[in-house]
Amino acid sequence: MSDVERLLKQAAMQIGAGGSAGFVEVCIMHPLDLVKTRFQLQSSSSALKNSDPHYYNGIVDCMKKMYKYEGLTSFWKGILPPILAETPKRAVKFATFEQYKRFFMFGSSTPTPLTFSLAGLGAGITEAILVNPFEVVKVTLQSNKSLATQVPSTWSVTRQIVRENGLGSKGLNKGLTATMARNGIFNMVYFGFYHSVKGYIPEYEDPLLEFSRKIAIGFTSGVLGSCVNIPFDVAKSRIQGPQPSPGIVKYNSTVGTINLVYREEGFRALYKGLLPKVLRLGPGGAIMLVVYDYVYNFLENKFQDKTQ
Questions:
Q1: Which residues are listed as membrane-spanning (predicted)?
Q2: Fewer CB atoms inside 10 A, N or C side of the chain?
Q3: What is the 3-state secondary structure (H, E, C) of 56-124?
Q4: Can you tell me the distance from the alpha carbon of 168 to that of 181, in angstroms, rounded to the nearest whole number?
């Protein structure tokens, strides 16, 4: 097999494994992503707490009110954009991570923790550029508190955004820098921690113990990444979600939004939605990396069988 054929085979396996990992993760964890977005869009105004029946005091309270006012299917509002985006998004993330890893070896034969972190940063920024339009549509759908049966379709929301604001920084690419910062920082920590720690903890011959080892490292990677990048996630939700006053853009730039939220609502507001985010991306991070590893190994064995 030539070098070109070998690289193409590896890329195909990375894309297949990454896409599978993303699809499985989003189908399982989407309700918690929705709860996280609702918290991040929610203002800390005391008047709002007393007057808005949709004000959420915690994860359980949020889920109860969503079920009461919007129905059971509301927990999967906005799932179509991530389903459409997650397979190519994760495929791109894992495939570009491997390419960036080669670039950031800096002539060394062995990757270092810095190599993994910089490759993760590059992969996160790359996937953010591709997925941001889907994120804009998803946040718009998730912010709608009507009954699930009354929420407009994904396609109608997309058409409305394009018709009213176009494809640029006020339309489908609104909040791009916030998405790049969020995804870049998360993946820098996520991949950097996972691959560095995985190399120090010995593998187990027992399949169950080895599975548990990967789950534990993946879970910790997802939690750490979530804790580090959440201020940028809050900024992204505020920029891409509905503005407090219709027709007036309050949240615009990433740094400006973070500063504004800090001044008006305090430091804790920058960590809104952290618990549902951790509950989603802790297990989600574990699911994604473990599914990727097992699917990649499965495809690798299949390719080897066919070439023998």
A1: none
A2: C
A3: CCCHHHHHHHHHHHHCHHHHHCCCHHHHHHHHHHHHHHHHHHHHHHHHCCCCCCCCCHHHHHHHHHHHH
A4: 18
Mutual orientation of helices 207-240 and 113-142 as an angle, nearest 10°?
50
Query: What would the pLDDT profile of 58-80 be if each residue is shown by its tens digit?
Result: 888 888 988 888 888 788 787 87
All structural domains of the chain, each given as residue ranges with its CATH number in brackets, are: 1-305 (1.50.40.10)
235-275 pLDDT, tens digit per residue, is: 999 999 888 888 888 999 999 999 999 999 999 999 998 98
Rounded Cα–Cα distance for residues 85 and 246 (Å): 29
* CA-based nearest residue to 265, from 49, 35, 33: 49
State which amino acid sits at residue 207: P
275: tokens are 């618990």
Q: Which two tokens stand for residue 266?
A: 């305090």
Contact assessment for residue 58 and residue 9, using Cβ atoms and an 8 Å cutoff: no
Q: In the structure encoding, which two tokens stand for residue 229, read together? A: 């990048």
Tell me the residue type at 306.
K
Which residue from 124, 99, 132, 103 is spatially nearest to 228, judged by alpha carbons?
124
Query: Tell me: the pLDDT tens digits for 81-120?
Result: 777 777 777 778 888 998 899 899 988 888 999 999 999 9
Phi, psi of 295 (to 5 degrees): -65, -40
Structure tokens at 124: 């996160």
